[in-house]
Amino acid sequence: MTGFSADWLRQREPFDLAARHQTLALQFREALTPRPPQSALRILDLASGSGANFRALAPVLQTDQEWLMVDHDPLLLAAQRTEIARWAAQHGWHCQDQEGALSIHVGTARWLVRGQQLDLARDLESIDLASCDGLVTTAFLDLVSAAWLDRLSALLMRTHRPLLATLTVDGRRTWSPGRPADYLVADAFLSHQGSDKGFGPSLGARATPHLAAGLAKVGYQVSTQTSDWTIGQEHREMLLTMAREAAGVAIEAEPTNAPAVSAWLAEKLADIQQGLLSLNVGHLDLLAVPAV
Ligand SMILES: C[S@@+](CC[C@H](N)C(=O)[O-])C[C@H]1O[C@@H](n2cnc3c(N)ncnc32)[C@H](O)[C@@H]1O
Question: Taking 70 as the threshold, does the pLDDT of residue 219 lie above it?
Fold first, then answer.
């Protein structure tokens, strides 16, 4: 387990939503071909967590849709149903259980969402990608290894399906105002990103360029765009979470740095308290469309 909590995914969702590159999402929509024609679009979401990708993209795709949401964490798959039902209710859309899937009625369109528990490290190739029209994933690819991304490219080469992979970290992280010890925490953070999250050594910030090169090699047209989080001074809770997480990771990576990192955290908490601090976190969105 990589241990992502539903609370954390809920906290990051509005920042993800604001950061997503809308043009790439629209181009992904254009690249989708329902099979057979006129039928619902079938979308596969890898590492779907509590369903943020569906909530962001279903309104962009608009038409009838059938989503298969794959994750290995049963708690997040359970949270997914709750979060999607709550989201539908907030919009005044009718949502009901239909043989284990959630069926949401939005105007004349119907969105059907089904969760599936699967370990993507082990069982990626068991996915029937050919029975889907497009593949999406968000906030996931920085966890995986080069070898796993090569497996994903091979799967896409065989099936010729468009991919939209959003919000992969790219290593940029800028605190304002900057402090001298920012570099210490940033270095530790980057080395932590390279640890094994169950897929072999993670590529972290190098994931998007690696996948882009791999897919270009097998005949895909690939575009990438930045999708940065801008966490302004008014978002104190998010800043607190980010500063505490960065400090925790830095100490775990290098315990001898604990005194310096604790002093760094105290400075950041004081800056947040005074409404001075903001943070930019760099991400990349990637769209890959088969050339033919
Ligand atoms: C940062 S979260 C992103 C979740 C969701 N896409 C979102 O944006 O809210 C990473 C997701 O990867 C999933 N994950 C990690 N390792 C996995 C594995 N081996 N198989 C399937 N899912 C995995 C986690 O359970 C978690 O839902």
Answer: yes
In a domain, 18, yes or no: yes
Residue in 98, 66, 95 with CA at minimum distance from that of residue 82: 95
Residue 260 makes CB contacts below 8 A (sequence gap 6+) with: 181, 184
Pocket test for ligand 1, best of 71, 117, 125, 242 (most atoms within 8 A of CB): 71
- Residue 1 lies inside a defined structural domain of this protein: no
Measured from CB, residues less than 6 Å from any atom of ligand 1 are 2, 4, 9, 47-50, 52-53, 71-73, 76, 119-121, 138-140, 143, 198
- Does pLDDT of 1 surpass 80? no
- Residue 132 in any domain: the answer is yes
Which CATH number do you get for residue 127?
3.40.50.150
List strand residue ranges (DSSP E) for 31-162, in order. 41-46, 65-71, 94-98, 101-106, 109-117, 134-138
* Entry pTM: 0.96
Residue 255 lies in a domain: no
* CA-nearest residue, atom 12 of ligand 1: 47
Between 92 and 190, where is the model more confident? 92
Domain count, the chain: 1
User: Which run of H or E residues covers position 289?
Assistant: strand 278-290
| pLDDT band per the 50, 70, 90 thresholds, residue 2 | low
Q: Ligand 1, closest atom to CA 48?
A: 6
Query: Ligand 1: which of 7, 13, 73 to mutate, most ligand atoms within 8 Å of CB?
Result: 73
Cα(48) to ligand 1 centroid in Å equals: 6
Residue-wise pLDDT for 78-101, tens only, equals 999 999 999 999 999 999 998 889
Range of the domain at 140: 6-171+199-231+281-290
Six-digit token string for 3? 């241990």
